[in-house]
């Protein structure tokens, strides 16, 4: 990438972040609705802190932080960098005010511009910048999921954006695609950017299996609900059962009441539940229980990546500004990319031969490699250029505020 | 009070509320820093809800709520009125935006004006209006204590207002004032407004005792700290000891670090701890432990009221806009009113013959008559006209985010 | 009391403790069913520790503890004595085995005998011994309430003793006894033993009022339950309402199911609920709510003591070995003593002029003087000689595993 | 196996269970020291319940439960069987007394004998019996770990058995054994008993790697402790760091004080920490952190099983009655079996093609397949005939009360 191409990419992504915050008031940007989520203002500050800390501090001749306190306030979890503001207290930061965080962004952007314009800019600078941009794209998705969660808690059920109306689109029938067993290669291949946790590319042995042609729909999931799925302990992992009972879950996170028919809270406000669309905002626990009830299972990450690497990367991404899954209307193996993240049965661990990057950047991915499960393929809240076959997203089994859905798989011997 | 006098009082108090919010951004007004505190925006809405619910709904010919959802959102604890928004979730209400709550205030004010202007306005209307104004004054004080708590959690340690500088003022020596024993009367007397919990006026027998001439100072309290007061279980009630250990308290709430000398967080930001000023933001537990260490005790509420009823109501109140206690520089029994609330050893209970008001208004005071302790005399955050000798404030023994301080008493036989 | 009379009293009370443990296995004696309760074995050890620590250590010429570790294990809350075993972990002490604790008792008894036989035994020794015996009687009552709680948790619903059958005994009608207002004296008077918290005797002013002739019965309380008492927030203190909702209380602690009619768990196992008997095992919250529903209130401790001091001390005490309240079948002001402890509306605080005893013994009562409410009159689990008009028992408002019941009072002006 | 061989195996294993309880009093057997552990009496009842429920109920002509209430009390987690006694309340069951549980065992044993003697006994009966015996062996190990935990909480630090003295045995040097990469088969092979979760045997691809010749010793782990291992967040997974900070861990579970040198609590009481022995009672978090600090990693389960299947099954098992790991004194790849369970980096999930057994038995293993990590090889508390190369034990990452230790692995490219 030429220096000017990098700078152009930089401004495009940084502007997109601000554009996502446009529909929101300073109040909306300030509040944290649960410990797992962060305020929008914090996302705006933290993504900027990332460039300031990992790029400017290293490359600016006479580095001065924009504001000393921001160094702590906007650090997420990088112990090697120093003190961190306690995560559950991010929502108390009414100061700095939102305009001051915008100033912080502009200041860092200007300093980044000067750095990237320098003739001598080196590979490490460029690759740290690219890392920062990928990091920013991840936070773009979190901004959408976090504001959705906040708004869902509000009795006024605010709209993030005006809901558009889409014609009814009955999904294609669910079909099963066969995959042979054998040794396959997974992990990042090629030249483009990838995270350290996607490497090294390595061999895995997969069994003969089938994958469902598309995501599970709301209509299909509703059958599970109506069949008493949430009342039958035999369908649930032991800790999943505890989770649904303690939290009194009896349907996906954003489904609402059912007296006047099922509704769903979306970024366009409360809408009737569209049975054609993929079910979304389910936890690993729910995805696993649904699969068991159906007589199938979740794919492994190797199975998923093997299938995905044979597909074009296209789908319903955040670039559409729809921010909601869409129905599967084409034949073939579809919705692999976009719409919803797909839970796999694989827990998050290091690939054989993996070693984390040196220094604080090495904390990016590797310190979460326990008690998390892998999601693949991106969602309607993911920027399209952010995704690739080897991309590994991960969340705890109870997480459901992400755009997470279900693709089924089954062993070939089942048929 | 004439109708126009009442309306004039109404506008004065309602304007004061908005004036207190002036230094704050919409972000500052939105956030809740702990379950005991409420966001400023919620205070603005709730005090308005009070007039809408208890006055307008009863007196307007064709009552329509300003916004149906506000009826739930801004209800604090009145079960008889209907559903309530969960207290710990008040900080999630980024919508309605602050300007909409200001509109709500203006709308209700205008409707109140029309009501109060009516020739036929009756005693009950007028007395509910006065109740609403007193209620609003209580929330004015809470706005100050809640914003102080929020700002204290922020690493930027923001100022609510520019700190003024006061000349050093060494306090007068602590002296003991004698009071004879015998039957006294306490409870509200006379014509003015009072809450139901101040009645009926009744007899109590008090013992011969002494009261300290002024509040305990920071300097005196620091001696207790330096003497290891927070490390000696013999000085603490059993549950107080658990409280300081679990919460790791070793000094009053807003005292800070001591490496470079003790500092104190105030509404004017972080300032050096002024040893001349009264200690403030102590819990009942701390007030009780300090008194035990000193060899004294806290006064009973009857003792306090008996002494206070012989004093002029004057002192360092919120009207000063100082919002911080001041040193006692006069002789005699001083600081009875203003500066800090004074913990008494009396738990909050009904006076003999007490019956709460009928209907939802009856929930105002009586449902809190367990496990709370009485504070008397108002503080630097209390409007001066809000206080009277019989005024009973009450908080749980662990509460320390109020402007609460210590006046000592002792039995006459001690001397 | 002569030395031999004291020793005879000592053996009588110490033997009674062991007799209470007779129906229990070593397993029954070892387990702790909740943090508020203690295992029987711990009670046996702790009452012995009390004599060893406060008497033997002071009076034996060459004191050696029976077992060094017991000094920590059996200390309840005396900080001045040294380390304590964590209260919630008392149930983990499977060692020492029960016989070793019996040996500990015998050893300390023998050493106490030698001490009390000495010609030179002094007043302080004798009064500490008497304190130890009164302490032991308190634990006799706790043994009964703690084993009742443990057995209530067991699906086998074991009997502590064979239930005797009593003929049906309809209670006398509830009548109201008038008491004039005026200055009365309360607090311990006379020569016998009393705790420090019953002194000094002092004056209080009481209002004209009425007291109910007897305790509230199960039948009367059931009317409150059937009338939806547990579903109406207007009847409950705010924190009481939270308590019944969080803990899902809808009836007194040991009432069971109601499908086949109400049953009650007793020390004689599960029996049909006898509507003639006093309601028992209610919390302060429940007593207060019942009184509000009835249109009455709880008595103050001064009112109670004033009435009680005019009565003979007789009633249904632990000496009967019935361990359950009995119906009120006589006319007059009855059941003042025995049957159930009677909640008063008074919180536990120091009498005017009170100073705790010096040293560790001073921790006995005074460190609990916050957030507890007074109960008066003893119960069917209290030894008769342990009670007196001035006796002050105290528990937190939520406590209901004690034999606590309800006597109503009301202001004279109500009539 | 002939009927008489099966009955002989049955009595041998059932007797062994009772023998393990012999050193314990009824009190020791009754108490539960934490929710993860169970009382010994409950283990004795539950293992018996297993035969009664899954064998007798199915095969006895006119089945009558020994005691109806035991059906609920001794059910662990089998939802398909009916109600369960709440796990954290297992320690409240002072009744039935221990002798009654022994009677229950004898009764079920006698009925099992009659069943197994029948000429017509079928394969399913025999295989359910074998399952019950394997289940009982698992509980034999839990009895040892649970009693160890209970005793560790007791200030008297009781001995389960008299400690024997072993001559000092310096371990062999740590060496690395090479393994080639390629497709291997893992999962149960052959005729003997295995759990459903060990099947089907299937292929996995493993990378070239090395495994350490023996377990990590106390001496080696102490170097990690002394180097500040518990103070450096860079060494710990993010949730591991939270875990050690919240629980204030700074060394393995049963290490004690270090003022007078490190000691260790064992089933033979408190002994000096033997630096020659394998470190034991470490969590997955600690095993992972140690490996990272060392510059290695934990093996995967496929790597482990591949190596183990080339070894003789012999080692320091429960049969020795030593119940503590022993030093590695031989050359080669040693301690694969016995001494301590070995944490792998693999999370617990279904093998490809796995389907759980039908009915309640299907709940045995499969419902725990989330957020647990695999341990392999058995320990000094495991019966030797219970283990095999394909055996999969699993516990949550924080579990440390099992005899769990560390074997290191590393990628071949590291060298």
What distance lies between the first and last C-alpha atoms of chain A, to the nearest angstrom? 49 Å
| Proportion in helices of chain A | 25-40%
Helix-strand sequence of chain A: HHHHHHEEEEHHEEEHHEHEEEE
Strand order of the largest sheet of chain A: 10-9-8-11
- Overall morphology of chain A: globular
Structural class of chain A: alpha+beta
Number of strands of chain A: 12
Q: Mean pLDDT of chain A, rounded to whole units?
A: 95
Greatest interface = A-D, 42 and 41 residues
**Quaternary organisation:** homotetramer
Strand count, sense and closure of the main sheet of chain A? 4 strands, mixed
Number of helices of chain A: 11
Note the beta-strand portion of chain A. 5-15%
Radius of gyration of chain A over alpha carbons?
22 Å
Unreliable runs of chain A, pLDDT <50, ≥5 residues?
none
Describe the 3D structure.
The structure is a homotetramer of 415-residue chains. Chain A has helices at 3-21, 26-30, 40-59, 70-73, 98-117, 123-152, 218-226, 238-246, 284-294, 301-308, 363-366; strands at 176-179, 182-186, 202-206, 209-212, 255-256, 263-266, 269-272, 341-347, 373-376, 393-395, 404-405, 409-411. Chain A is α+β, with helices and mostly antiparallel strands and 415 residues long. In chain A, helix 1 packs parallel to helix 6 (123-152). In chain A, strand 5 and strand 6 (263-266) form a beta hairpin. In chain A, strands 10-9-8-11 form a 4-stranded mixed beta sheet. Chain A has a 3-stranded antiparallel beta sheet with strand order 1-4-12, with helices on one face. Chain A has a 3-stranded antiparallel beta sheet with strand order 5-6-7, with no helix packed on it. Chains in contact: A-B, A-D, B-C, C-D. The interface between A and D is large, with 42 and 41 residues.
């Amino acid at each position: 990438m030429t220096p000017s191409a990098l700078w152009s990419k930089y401004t495009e992504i940084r502007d997109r972040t601000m554009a996502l915050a446009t529909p929101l008031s300073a109040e909306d940007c300030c509040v944290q609705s649960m410990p797992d989520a962060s305020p929008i203002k914090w996302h705006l500050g933290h993504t900027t802190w990332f460039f300031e800390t990992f790029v400017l501090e290293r490359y600016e001749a006479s580095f001065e932080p924009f504001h000393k306190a921001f160094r702590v306030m906007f650090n997420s979890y990088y112990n090697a960098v120093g003190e961190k503001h306690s995560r559950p207290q991010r929502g108390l930061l009414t100061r700095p005010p939102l305009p001051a965080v915008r100033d912080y962004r502009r200041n860092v952007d200007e300093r980044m511009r000067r750095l990237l314009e320098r003739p001598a800019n080196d590979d490490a600078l460029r690759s740290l910048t690219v890392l920062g941009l990928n990091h920013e794209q991840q936070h773009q998705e979190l901004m959408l999921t976090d504001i959705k969660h906040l708004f869902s808690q509000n009795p006024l059920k605010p709209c993030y954006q005006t809901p558009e109306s889409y014609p009814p689109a009955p999904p294609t029938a669910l079909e099963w695609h066969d995959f042979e067993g054998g040794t396959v290669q997974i992990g990042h291949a090629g030249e483009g950017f990838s995270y350290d946790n996607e490497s090294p590319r390595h061999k895995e042995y997969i069994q003969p299996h089938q994958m469902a042609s598309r995501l599970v729909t709301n209509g299909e999931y509703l059958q599970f609900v109506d069949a008493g799925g949430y009342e039958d302990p035999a369908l649930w992992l032991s800790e999943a059962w505890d989770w649904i009972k303690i939290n009194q879950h009896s349907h996906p996170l954003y489904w609402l009441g059912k007296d006047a028919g099922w509704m769903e809270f979306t970024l366009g406000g409360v809408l009737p539940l569209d049975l054609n669309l993929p079910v979304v905002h389910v936890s690993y626990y729910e995805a696993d229980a649904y699969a068991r009830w159906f007589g199938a299972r979740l794919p492994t990450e190797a199975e998923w990546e093997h299938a995905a690497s044979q597909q074009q990367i296209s789908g319903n991404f955040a670039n559409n500004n729809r921010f909601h899954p869409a129905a599967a209307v084409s034949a073939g193996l579809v919705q692999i990319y976009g719409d919803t993240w797909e839970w796999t049965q694989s827990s998050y661990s290091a690939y054989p031969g993996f070693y984390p990057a040196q220094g604080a950047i090495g904390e990016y991915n590797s310190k979460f490699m326990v008690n998390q499960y892998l999601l693949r393929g991106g969602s309607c809240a993911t920027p399209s250029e952010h995704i690739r076959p080897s991309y590994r997203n991960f969340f705890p089994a109870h997480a459901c505020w992400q755009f997470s859905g279900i693709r089924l798989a089954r062993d070939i011997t089942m048929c």
